[in-house]
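Render this sequence as a predicted structure.
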Amino acid sequence: MRFSCKVFLENPANIVIPPDYRSYLLSMIKEAFRLSSDDGNEFFDRVYSGNNSKPFTFSAYIPMKRDGENFKLEDRKDFFSFFFSTSDYEFLMRIYNGLNKIKSSKNFQLFGQNIKEIKHFFLLPEKSFNKDKLVFKTLSPFLVRNPEDGNYYFVPEGLLKGKSFKYSVEVSEKEFINALKKNIVSLVKKYLGKEIEENEINISYANLELSPSIHSSNKSNFRITLPAIKGLLELNTKPEVLKLLYDTGIGARRSEGFGMLEVVK
Protein backbone atom coordinates (compact mmCIF):
# COMPACT_ATOMS: atom_id res chain seq x y z
CA MET A 1 0.00 0.00 0.00
CA ARG A 2 1.33 3.42 -0.86
CA PHE A 3 0.26 6.99 -1.32
CA SER A 4 1.73 10.25 -2.53
CA CYS A 5 1.21 13.89 -1.65
CA LYS A 6 2.72 17.28 -2.38
CA VAL A 7 4.43 19.27 0.37
CA PHE A 8 4.53 23.05 -0.07
CA LEU A 9 7.04 25.16 1.86
CA GLU A 10 7.11 28.83 2.82
CA ASN A 11 9.79 31.06 1.29
CA PRO A 12 10.92 28.46 -1.26
CA ALA A 13 13.66 30.72 -2.63
CA ASN A 14 15.36 30.67 0.79
CA ILE A 15 15.20 26.93 1.38
CA VAL A 16 18.52 25.17 1.93
CA ILE A 17 18.23 21.42 1.36
CA PRO A 18 21.10 19.50 2.98
CA PRO A 19 22.50 16.37 1.32
CA ASP A 20 21.14 14.26 4.20
CA TYR A 21 17.59 15.38 3.40
CA ARG A 22 16.21 11.90 4.16
CA SER A 23 16.77 12.42 7.88
CA TYR A 24 14.66 15.59 7.69
CA LEU A 25 11.86 13.75 5.93
CA LEU A 26 12.07 11.06 8.60
CA SER A 27 11.56 13.77 11.23
CA MET A 28 8.36 14.74 9.43
CA ILE A 29 7.21 11.11 9.45
CA LYS A 30 7.94 10.75 13.16
CA GLU A 31 6.00 13.93 13.94
CA ALA A 32 3.10 12.62 11.86
CA PHE A 33 3.06 9.40 13.89
CA ARG A 34 2.99 11.40 17.13
CA LEU A 35 0.09 13.54 15.89
CA SER A 36 -1.80 10.69 14.23
CA SER A 37 -4.34 10.18 17.05
CA ASP A 38 -4.85 10.47 20.80
CA ASP A 39 -2.51 7.52 21.31
CA GLY A 40 0.03 8.79 18.78
CA ASN A 41 2.82 9.20 21.34
CA GLU A 42 2.28 5.66 22.60
CA PHE A 43 2.35 4.35 19.04
CA PHE A 44 5.57 6.26 18.35
CA ASP A 45 7.22 4.91 21.52
CA ARG A 46 6.21 1.37 20.61
CA VAL A 47 7.53 1.62 17.05
CA TYR A 48 10.78 3.36 17.95
CA SER A 49 11.64 1.51 21.16
CA GLY A 50 14.92 -0.20 20.37
CA ASN A 51 16.46 -0.84 16.98
CA ASN A 52 13.44 -2.59 15.47
CA SER A 53 12.69 -3.18 11.81
CA LYS A 54 9.69 -1.20 10.58
CA PRO A 55 7.22 -2.13 7.81
CA PHE A 56 7.57 0.96 5.66
CA THR A 57 9.79 2.89 3.33
CA PHE A 58 9.57 6.28 1.64
CA SER A 59 11.05 8.40 -1.10
CA ALA A 60 10.72 11.93 -2.41
CA TYR A 61 11.01 13.69 -5.72
CA ILE A 62 12.54 17.07 -4.94
CA PRO A 63 13.15 19.36 -7.95
CA MET A 64 16.46 20.73 -6.73
CA LYS A 65 19.79 21.98 -7.98
CA ARG A 66 23.16 22.02 -6.29
CA ASP A 67 24.16 25.07 -4.31
CA GLY A 68 27.66 24.48 -2.94
CA GLU A 69 27.56 21.53 -0.55
CA ASN A 70 23.78 21.79 -0.29
CA PHE A 71 20.84 22.05 -2.67
CA LYS A 72 18.01 24.47 -3.29
CA LEU A 73 14.70 24.19 -5.08
CA GLU A 74 14.70 24.84 -8.79
CA ASP A 75 13.42 28.25 -9.87
CA ARG A 76 9.66 28.75 -9.54
CA LYS A 77 9.27 25.51 -7.57
CA ASP A 78 7.67 25.63 -4.13
CA PHE A 79 6.83 21.99 -3.40
CA PHE A 80 8.14 18.44 -3.57
CA SER A 81 6.40 15.09 -3.98
CA PHE A 82 6.47 12.64 -1.08
CA PHE A 83 5.83 8.89 -1.41
CA PHE A 84 5.11 6.51 1.47
CA SER A 85 4.78 2.72 1.19
CA THR A 86 3.91 0.09 3.80
CA SER A 87 2.55 -3.41 4.26
CA ASP A 88 0.67 -2.35 7.41
CA TYR A 89 -2.66 -0.52 7.12
CA GLU A 90 -2.25 1.11 10.57
CA PHE A 91 0.99 2.79 9.48
CA LEU A 92 -0.70 4.04 6.32
CA MET A 93 -3.62 5.58 8.21
CA ARG A 94 -1.42 7.09 10.91
CA ILE A 95 0.95 8.80 8.48
CA TYR A 96 -2.05 10.12 6.53
CA ASN A 97 -3.78 11.44 9.66
CA GLY A 98 -0.56 12.87 11.04
CA LEU A 99 0.37 14.71 7.86
CA ASN A 100 -3.09 16.28 7.84
CA LYS A 101 -2.48 17.46 11.42
CA ILE A 102 0.85 18.96 10.37
CA LYS A 103 -0.94 20.60 7.45
CA SER A 104 -3.51 22.16 9.81
CA SER A 105 -1.01 23.38 12.40
CA LYS A 106 1.34 25.03 9.87
CA ASN A 107 4.10 25.26 12.49
CA PHE A 108 6.26 22.25 11.64
CA GLN A 109 9.57 23.22 10.08
CA LEU A 110 11.26 21.30 7.29
CA PHE A 111 14.59 22.44 5.84
CA GLY A 112 14.36 25.51 8.08
CA GLN A 113 10.99 26.66 6.70
CA ASN A 114 7.44 26.12 7.88
CA ILE A 115 5.34 23.67 5.91
CA LYS A 116 2.71 25.88 4.29
CA GLU A 117 0.46 23.19 2.86
CA ILE A 118 0.25 19.45 2.24
CA LYS A 119 -2.24 18.49 -0.43
CA HIS A 120 -3.03 16.30 -3.43
CA PHE A 121 -3.09 13.15 -1.30
CA PHE A 122 -3.43 10.20 -3.65
CA LEU A 123 -3.79 6.56 -2.64
CA LEU A 124 -2.06 4.67 -5.41
CA PRO A 125 -4.04 1.72 -6.83
CA GLU A 126 -3.04 -1.64 -5.38
CA LYS A 127 -0.92 -3.68 -7.78
CA SER A 128 -1.76 -7.33 -8.36
CA PHE A 129 1.15 -9.69 -7.87
CA ASN A 130 0.37 -12.92 -9.70
CA LYS A 131 3.76 -13.54 -11.32
CA ASP A 132 6.81 -15.07 -9.72
CA LYS A 133 9.28 -12.94 -11.69
CA LEU A 134 9.38 -9.14 -11.82
CA VAL A 135 11.86 -6.40 -12.65
CA PHE A 136 12.01 -3.51 -10.20
CA LYS A 137 13.74 -0.16 -10.42
CA THR A 138 14.89 1.71 -7.34
CA LEU A 139 12.93 4.85 -6.42
CA SER A 140 15.41 5.35 -3.61
CA PRO A 141 18.83 3.67 -3.45
CA PHE A 142 19.20 0.50 -1.38
CA LEU A 143 21.78 -0.80 1.08
CA VAL A 144 22.91 -4.39 1.58
CA ARG A 145 24.11 -4.99 5.10
CA ASN A 146 27.00 -7.35 5.87
CA PRO A 147 25.26 -10.30 7.60
CA GLU A 148 28.33 -10.89 9.79
CA ASP A 149 28.86 -7.26 10.83
CA GLY A 150 25.84 -4.96 10.63
CA ASN A 151 28.01 -1.83 10.73
CA TYR A 152 29.23 -2.49 7.18
CA TYR A 153 27.55 -2.68 3.78
CA PHE A 154 28.34 -4.85 0.77
CA VAL A 155 29.08 -3.37 -2.65
CA PRO A 156 29.55 -5.59 -5.74
CA GLU A 157 33.06 -5.74 -7.19
CA GLY A 158 33.78 -2.98 -9.69
CA LEU A 159 31.12 -0.57 -8.45
CA LEU A 160 33.31 1.50 -6.14
CA LYS A 161 35.64 2.47 -9.00
CA GLY A 162 38.40 3.61 -6.68
CA LYS A 163 36.11 5.38 -4.24
CA SER A 164 36.44 4.58 -0.57
CA PHE A 165 33.75 4.53 2.10
CA LYS A 166 34.46 3.86 5.74
CA TYR A 167 31.57 1.40 6.05
CA SER A 168 31.75 -0.38 2.68
CA VAL A 169 33.06 -3.85 1.84
CA GLU A 170 33.64 -4.80 -1.80
CA VAL A 171 32.47 -8.37 -2.41
CA SER A 172 31.78 -10.76 -5.27
CA GLU A 173 28.43 -10.80 -7.06
CA LYS A 174 27.59 -14.09 -5.33
CA GLU A 175 28.30 -12.70 -1.83
CA PHE A 176 26.29 -9.57 -2.60
CA ILE A 177 23.26 -11.52 -3.81
CA ASN A 178 23.44 -14.00 -0.92
CA ALA A 179 23.42 -11.13 1.59
CA LEU A 180 20.39 -9.61 -0.13
CA LYS A 181 18.65 -13.00 0.02
CA LYS A 182 19.26 -13.18 3.77
CA ASN A 183 17.61 -9.78 4.13
CA ILE A 184 14.55 -10.98 2.20
CA VAL A 185 14.32 -14.18 4.27
CA SER A 186 14.33 -12.04 7.43
CA LEU A 187 11.62 -9.70 6.11
CA VAL A 188 9.39 -12.63 5.13
CA LYS A 189 9.70 -14.19 8.57
CA LYS A 190 8.95 -10.92 10.38
CA TYR A 191 6.11 -9.52 8.25
CA LEU A 192 4.54 -12.60 6.64
CA GLY A 193 5.20 -14.97 9.54
CA LYS A 194 6.52 -17.59 7.14
CA GLU A 195 9.75 -19.40 6.44
CA ILE A 196 11.39 -19.22 3.03
CA GLU A 197 14.64 -20.78 1.91
CA GLU A 198 17.31 -18.73 0.18
CA ASN A 199 17.22 -21.13 -2.76
CA GLU A 200 13.57 -20.10 -3.33
CA ILE A 201 14.80 -16.61 -4.22
CA ASN A 202 16.66 -15.79 -7.43
CA ILE A 203 18.14 -12.35 -7.93
CA SER A 204 19.93 -10.70 -10.82
CA TYR A 205 20.68 -7.06 -11.42
CA ALA A 206 21.50 -4.60 -14.17
CA ASN A 207 22.68 -1.01 -14.53
CA LEU A 208 23.76 -0.77 -10.91
CA GLU A 209 25.35 2.53 -9.91
CA LEU A 210 26.78 3.75 -6.67
CA SER A 211 24.61 6.48 -5.12
CA PRO A 212 26.58 7.78 -2.10
CA SER A 213 24.11 8.94 0.54
CA ILE A 214 24.97 11.11 3.51
CA HIS A 215 23.28 10.02 6.71
CA SER A 216 23.25 12.06 9.89
CA SER A 217 21.45 12.57 13.19
CA ASN A 218 19.58 15.77 13.99
CA LYS A 219 20.50 15.24 17.65
CA SER A 220 24.28 15.00 17.26
CA ASN A 221 27.19 15.68 14.93
CA PHE A 222 27.13 12.06 13.74
CA ARG A 223 27.48 11.97 9.95
CA ILE A 224 28.53 9.20 7.57
CA THR A 225 28.38 8.53 3.85
CA LEU A 226 26.65 5.26 3.06
CA PRO A 227 27.44 3.21 -0.10
CA ALA A 228 23.86 3.08 -1.38
CA ILE A 229 23.10 1.57 -4.78
CA LYS A 230 20.52 2.25 -7.48
CA GLY A 231 19.57 0.32 -10.59
CA LEU A 232 17.39 -2.57 -11.74
CA LEU A 233 16.70 -5.77 -9.80
CA GLU A 234 15.09 -8.87 -11.28
CA LEU A 235 13.53 -11.00 -8.55
CA ASN A 236 12.16 -14.49 -9.01
CA THR A 237 10.28 -15.79 -5.96
CA LYS A 238 6.75 -16.21 -4.58
CA PRO A 239 4.29 -13.44 -5.56
CA GLU A 240 3.49 -12.68 -1.90
CA VAL A 241 7.19 -12.04 -1.30
CA LEU A 242 7.40 -9.73 -4.32
CA LYS A 243 4.42 -7.79 -2.96
CA LEU A 244 6.07 -7.51 0.46
CA LEU A 245 9.23 -6.06 -1.09
CA TYR A 246 7.15 -3.62 -3.11
CA ASP A 247 5.31 -2.51 0.04
CA THR A 248 8.16 -2.36 2.54
CA GLY A 249 11.24 -1.89 0.35
CA ILE A 250 14.39 -3.96 0.12
CA GLY A 251 17.69 -3.98 1.99
CA ALA A 252 18.75 -2.14 5.13
CA ARG A 253 17.52 1.18 6.57
CA ARG A 254 14.28 1.01 4.60
CA SER A 255 12.38 3.11 7.13
CA GLU A 256 15.06 5.81 6.76
CA GLY A 257 14.24 6.33 3.09
CA PHE A 258 16.22 3.57 1.40
CA GLY A 259 15.17 0.65 -0.78
CA MET A 260 11.84 1.81 -2.22
CA LEU A 261 11.01 -0.08 -5.42
CA GLU A 262 8.74 0.35 -8.42
CA VAL A 263 7.67 -2.39 -10.82
CA VAL A 264 9.11 -2.02 -14.31
CA LYS A 265 7.83 -5.26 -15.84
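Summary. The chain has two domains: 2-123, 133-263. The radius of gyration is 18 Å.
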